[in-house]
Each structure stands twice: as structure tokens, then as C-alpha cells.
Amino acid sequence: EPEVTQTPSHQVTQMGQEVILRCVPISNHLYFYWYRQILGQKVEFLVSFYNNEISEKSEIFDDQFSVERPDGSNFTLKIRSTKLEDSAMYFCASSQSTTQETQYFGPGTRLLVL
Amino acid sequence: AQTVTQSQPEMSVQEAETVTLSCTYDTSENNYYLFWYKQPPSRQMILVIRQEAYKQQNATENRFSVNFQKAAKSFSLKISDSQLGDTAMYFCAFMKRYGGSQGNLIFGKGTKLSVKP
Questions:
Q1: A98 part of contact set with chain B, CB < 8 Å
Q2: Strands of A5-7's sheet in order across
Q3: pLDDT in tens, B64-115
Q4: B91 and A43 in contact by Cβ < 8 A?
Q5: What are the tens digits of pLDDT across the range B11-21?
Q6: Do B44 and A102 touch (CB under 8 A)?
Q7: A106 touching chain B per CB within 8 A
Q8: What DSSP string describes chain B?
Q9: If you measure CA to CA, which chain B residue comes closest to A31?
């Protein structure tokens, strides 16, 4: 069964460093998402992406964040200058459409900012 | 804005018994989806079941079923014949079908379910 994959599974970085989280969505899906879950809290929407551009973003997704689909398979989330409060689990998800299809999640990347 | 509330932070159930997890939501939308996702200790988010708001019939998936009460804005999950592998955090989620923010899942805070042998 096709699945969303994410790399790395864990990343530790120093405050102020740039990180890139990678995702490979399910191949025939057209809509891509990033969500964040700070430890012990609920999952929060960050950004949705379709047709090579951002469809919607939350207030969390400030100028430190960017997303990109550099090729036909990868979907990346970049945090330009990490802060301690960026420590969280980051989930990528994909769906065939927004109006009818379920979002399927990847296993997540656990980011720790020191 | 939509909100999702899960009022039970933790629950436990004996193996083979039935348990019901509660979820309420607030929205002015008429067309939307509701989901239950499971997050085991591995922390991967796994879809359990989905309900379309325009369908009156409650969704079922094997041992998992929902009680969807649209007027009451209630969406509970029933797990029958609980198994040890059902131990996980369970999140209720809402998604608009049309308009701005469609496709963005809004999650509740979760219910931690422990299945005891």
C-alpha cells in the first residue's frame, strides 16, 4: 500500500541553524500539507500546497518557514533560523484533493532545537 | 472558526471490552468531514475512520464505528473487542469541504487510551 515517507526521523540542531525536513507524498496525490505537534499538545496545521504554490498557511507559518517541491516527488519544509520553540514533531500529509479525499500522514520528523 | 473538543484526556479499557471516546465540535458549516486518527507510541498518525457530514449513516470499519449526531455536533468513536494494539492517543479532527481553509484538518487535544490485559 502506498505511503507517505519522511526523512530524517529525528533531527537535533542548534538554535539559529537552518533545517530542511523532507517528505515524499503518495505518488498520485496533488495536495500536500505540513502539520506540527509540540510534545503533549494537539496537532496544528502549518501550510497546504498545491500546484507548486502555497494554498493556505496558518499564523504559525511565519517568514522563518518555507516549503518547496523541488522535483516531482519530494516536498520539503525549511526552517531558516530555528528557535527553541520549533522543537516538535513535524508531520507531512498528502491527499488527492481537498474536497473529497482523506489526508494520509507520514511517520513524522522529531525536531529538537538546542 | 471551527473547534474540536475531546473532553476525556485519558481512558482505559480491559482487553476484549468496548470503549467509547467522545468528541464534540463547533462549526457553522454544513458540508464537512470528521475523522478519527490514532497515534500509537511510535507517534505516526494513522487514519481510523472518516465520516461525511452529508451522510446520515454512521461509518464503520471493522471493530471501529462512530456515532455521528449532526444536530448535536457530536462524533464519538466506539471500539469493540478492544485489543492491546489499540493502545494509543486518539485524535478527533474536522475538515471543511468547501471555502477558505478547506483541506486543513483541525484536531482536538486527543484522548489517551490504554487497553489493559
A1: yes
A2: A5-7, A19-24, A75-79, A65-68
A3: 999 999 999 999 999 999 999 999 999 999 998 776 666 789 999 999 999 9
A4: yes
A5: 999 999 999 99
A6: no
A7: yes
A8: --EEE---SEEEEETT--EEE--EEE-S-SSEEEEEEEE-TT---EEEEEEETT--SPPEETTEEEEEETTTTEEEEEE-S--GGG-EEEEEEEEESSSTTTT--EE---EEEEEE-
A9: B103
